[in-house]
Amino acid sequence: MLLIGTLRVVLAAAGLAAAIALGERARAAAALFAAGGVIVLVAIMSGRRGRLVWQRLAQAEPLGSEPNLEPRRLVLARAAYPSTIGLTVLIAISLALAAALAALLSGILAGIGGAALGFAAQLAAWERQRGARVLAEPGRGGRVFEVPR
Prior knowledge:
Order of helices and strands: HHHEHHHEE
Structural class: mainly alpha
Largest sheet: 3 strands, mixed
């Protein structure tokens, strides 16, 4: 979560900077960026998906054997597809059409990145409290495991 959150925020900042460099007024671009971020954060925080994640974590199974971890680049690629990659492509296309739209889309990407970073911080605190590390199988329906530290 920390890697994908950071990547999303960096890409969002680059999109905002590009929108300003291509002629969008800085104040207007910043307002659109903030609006996109706030809309997404409100949608994420008010959705039930976050609650479901914590329910799955509470039911984490102990892992009986040594975990076979995927390389970080594969985990990052899996997390980036389709939302981060799709939004980044839309930002790039919108830079050619309407810099204001690029600023708004960059804010949406920043909101998703901010949510990922917030969740990463919460997960790290949860793991510290339990003295364990959480591992999950790839995919939305993958099992969740708890490994003692």
